[in-house]
Specification:
Layout lengths: L19 H7 L3 H22 L7 H20 L26 H4 L13 E9 L5 E9 L4 E3 L1
């Protein structure tokens, strides 16, 4: 898991009495704590499967499960009001379990002024969109060199 997750240093995993896990979690970041506890949970699950004569999950299967599960938890924490089924959010692993800070897009984008056409010419700007159910839409604006709309 250390290949895909930022886990605590391996030296910190040496048991030091009955409180070794508490010491390890205390010295870890919030993300590392979540990852460590999820790995221990998965190890318990594998042990439980073997104890009850069931096949043990594969290492690769466990890796995929843990990565997917943690991403789902981060998604829920970062975007609590979002419609997760649409899947339009991007998880920021550096942000971890902190709520996503919505930044006003108008402040981040540099507004570009519309470049007018040369004198005595017109410029046609066109945009279109489509949806998976077959609906389409199109818009067009024709402007002169002063920026005045000729046709829309």
């Amino acid at each position: 898991m250390a290949e895909v997750w930022d886990l605590p240093d391996i030296d910190a995993l040496w048991p030091e009495g009955q409180r070794w896990l508490l010491h390890l979690l205390h010295a870890s970041t919030e993300n590392q704590r979540a990852m460590t506890l999820m790995m221990l949970w998965r190890i318990w699950h594998a042990h439980n499967e073997i104890t009850h004569d069931k096949p043990c999950p594969t290492i690769e299967g466990s890796r995929r499960f843990l990565v997917s599960y943690l991403n789902s938890l981060m998604l829920i924490k970062q975007f609590p009001e979002a419609d997760i089924a649409k899947g339009k959010m991007v998880i920021d692993e550096r942000q971890g379990f902190q709520k996503h800070r919505q930044v006003d897009a108008r402040k981040e984008k540099v507004r570009q002024k519309w470049p007018p056409p040369e004198s005595n010419k017109a410029k046609l700007n066109v945009d279109g969109a489509f949806s998976t159910d077959g609906r389409v839409g199109i818009g067009a604006v024709l402007r002169d060199s002063n920026g005045d709309v000729i046709f829309a």
